[in-house]
Amino acid sequence: MIVGILGVGHLAAALVTGLNRAGLPSQSILLSSRGRSRELSERYHIPVCADTAELVRRSDIIVLAVRPHDAAKALEGLTWRVDQVLVSVCAGVSLSALPAAPAQRVRAMPLTAAEINASPTIFFPDIPKARWLIEKFGPAIALRNEREFEVATVNAAIYGWAQVLVRQSAEWCAAQGADGTAMRQLVAQTFVAAGRLIAERDQPMEDLLSELVTPGGITELGLKIMEVGGQPAVWREACEAVLARLTGAAAG
Ligand SMILES: NC(=O)c1ccc[n+]([C@@H]2O[C@H](COP(=O)([O-])OP(=O)(O)OC[C@H]3O[C@@H](n4cnc5c(N)ncnc54)[C@H](OP(=O)(O)O)[C@@H]3O)[C@@H](O)[C@H]2O)c1
Description:
The chain is α/β, with parallel strands linked by helices. The chain folds into two domains: 3-143, 3-Layer(aba) Sandwich (Rossmann fold), CATH 3.40.50.720; 154-251, ProC C-terminal domain-like (ProC C-terminal domain-like fold, Orthogonal Bundle). 48% of the residues lie in helices and 11% in strands. It contains ten helices and seven strands. It has helices at 10-21, 37-44, 52-58, 71-74, 128-134, 146-175, 180-200, 205-212, 218-228, 233-246, and strands spanning 3-6, 29-31, 61-64, 85-88, 104-109, 121-124, 140-142. The chain has a seven-stranded mixed beta sheet, sandwiched between helices. Helix 6 packs across helix 10 (233-246). The radius of gyration is 21 Å and the shape is globular. The model has no long low-confidence stretch (mean pLDDT 96). Bound molecules: NADP nicotinamide-adenine-dinucleotide phosphate (NAP). Residues 6-12, 32, 34-35, 52, 65-68, 70, 74, 89-91, 109-110, 112, 156 line the site of NADP nicotinamide-adenine-dinucleotide phosphate.
C-alpha cells in the first residue's frame, strides 16, 4: 500500500514521523514537492514526486494535508482510480468539496500526537483502507455522518487548549519554586491520567467525578472559583465559536 502525502507542512510532518514510527517502510510513502518535503525526505529517505499528478498516479491512499482554502485548487485537474482513497485532513472542508471521483473520499482529523502514534483520530466514512492508515496514528474513532464529524472536529481545538492548560499549570508551579522539569512531567502525565481513567472505565463520568469532588475539598474550592470566572459557560462558548467557524456559520 503506497501512501502519498499532498501538502507537506506542519501536520504532514507529524503524520510522516508517525508512519515511520509505526514501521511503514519509507518506500511506501510519497511526498508532494513543496513545504517541508525536502527535510522529511532527507530524514526518512522518502521519495518526493515531481508533481501532484505523479503523486496521485503512484499512490493507493492520498492524504490531502494542505490548508483548507487550498484544498479545491490542490485537487484540480487530477485523474483518480476507483481503487484509490483520498483522505482529507482539511478542517471544515466537506466531502462534497473534494472532487476525486471515482476514488473514495474520507475525512479524518488527526492531532499532532500522531507523531508518537497517540492521536485519537476521528474519520468518516469508515473505509478499510482509511482505517488501516488512521490506526497508525493512534486510536481510530469512526463517526456516523459528516455533521457528527464537524462537531467532533472542535476537539482538535480542545487538544490545543489542553496543552495551554498543561503549560499554564506547570509554569505556575515553577513560579512557586517547584522544579520546572518535574512539574512539566507531573502536569502533563496528570492530563494523560485523567483522560485514560475516563477512557478506560465505563461508568458515567458524573460518578467518576463525584468520587473526586468531595464537599469542602480542594477540587470543589477551585471549581467554585472557576465558576465565578465564567466556567463552564466560557468553555462552551469557545466550543460553539469553533463549530460555527468550521461550518461556515461565522466569519473570520
Ligand atoms: N496543524 C495541525 O495541528 C492540524 C491538525 C489537524 C488538521 N490540520 C489540517 O491540516 C491541514 C494542513 O495544516 P498545516 O498546519 O500542516 O498547514 P501548513 O503547515 O501550512 O502546510 C500546508 C502545506 O501544503 C502545501 N501546499 C499547498 N497547496 C499545495 C499544492 N497544491 N501542492 C502541494 N503542496 C501544497 C503548502 O506549501 P507552501 O508552503 O509552498 O504553500 C504547505 O507546505 C489544514 O487543512 C488543517 O486544517 C492541521
